[in-house]
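From the methods appendix. Each design record in this collection lists the tokenized structure first, followed by the designed amino acid sequence. Records were kept in a plain field format so they could be parsed without special tools. The example shown here is representative of the layout used throughout.

RECORD:
FOLD TOKENS (292 positions):
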């Protein structure tokens, strides 16, 4: 019985230590979330206006830029954005499941580009081809890193190594919510860039741009920046959603630790009470025996 009390006491001590760790991780994630959210909110207006501008520009000017070239899809590439670290609930699992479903449902061969260690660690043991991976971003959003990834994927499309590029990531909605988003990165479609409502507006109020020196030169300059912007925003969305998911997961873990401490403490107190009662009975029994 004494050994049982000691074991329960050690267990309570261990759970309290775990609670301190999860509580600290929750606070760290909350601080990182604020910074990541500020960075994301600062980038969204630029990305939105650039997307709208590209839609108007593409619909009002004839362009033969390869990014707009639609060809028969014989090969497809899926860019999967996950985090480098875990302890974030189902954050990475949900994206990985959706990516695997897309891979299985694709009627043509689909290759992978893994951004984030968790996605790469999962798919490297699966029968899917990984073109390249980036696993050293450390949860930080880097403009140079995003540009390098975007340029490499764009080169694959331009060289004919793939006919369509899809982008899958976790989109940040609020502190308590995020959702998986799958969108086509290449080839570009003017109507998709504008969106349904914007497309109707454009048809009613047609914008006629004068492009100098030539439309092709303008597209050559802007389109790579647009692709980089979309990859950058996907990584930024994932970063904010990751810290949100980890904060929620660590908050739940801290709450579970508190409940477990109460439960184990109750067992420990009952065991200790039973041990004391047994000792008292032994003393009383011994005294009675001496009297007899």
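DESIGN:
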């Amino acid at each position: 019985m004494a050994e049982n009390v000691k074991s329960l006491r050690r267990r309570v001590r261990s759970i309290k230590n775990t609670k301190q760790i999860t509580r600290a991780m929750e606070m760290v994630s909350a601080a990182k979330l604020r910074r990541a959210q500020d960075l994301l909110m600062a980038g969204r207006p630029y990305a939105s206006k650039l997307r709208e501008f590209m839609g108007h520009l593409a619909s009002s000017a004839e362009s033969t830029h390869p990014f707009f070239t639609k060809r028969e899809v014989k090969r497809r590439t899926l860019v999967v954005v996950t985090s480098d670290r875990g302890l974030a609930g189902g954050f990475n699992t949900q994206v990985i499941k959706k990516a695997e479903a897309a891979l299985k449902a694709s009627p043509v061969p689909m290759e992978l580009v893994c951004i984030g260690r968790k996605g790469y660690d999962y798919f490297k043991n699966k029968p899917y081809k990984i073109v390249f991976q980036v696993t050293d971003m450390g949860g930080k959003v880097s403009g140079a890193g995003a540009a390098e990834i975007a340029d490499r994927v764009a080169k694959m499309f331009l060289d004919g190594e793939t006919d369509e590029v899809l982008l899958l990531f976790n989109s940040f909605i609020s502190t308590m919510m995020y959702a998986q988003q799958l969108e086509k990165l290449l080839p570009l479609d003017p109507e998709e860039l504008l969106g349904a409502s914007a497309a109707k507006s454009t048809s009613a109020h047609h914008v006629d741009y004068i492009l100098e020196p030539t439309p092709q030169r303008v597209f050559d300059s802007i389109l790579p920046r647009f692709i980089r912007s979309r990859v950058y925003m996907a990584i930024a969305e994932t970063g904010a959603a990751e810290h949100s998911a980890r904060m929620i997961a660590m908050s739940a873990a801290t709450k579970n630790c508190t409940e477990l401490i109460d439960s184990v403490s109750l067992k420990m107190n009952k065991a200790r009470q039973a041990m004391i009662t047994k000792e008292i009975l032994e003393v009383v029994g011994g005294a009675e025996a001496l009297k007899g």
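APPENDIX NOTE: The domain at 2-25+251-291 is CATH 1.10.287.80 (Helix Hairpins).
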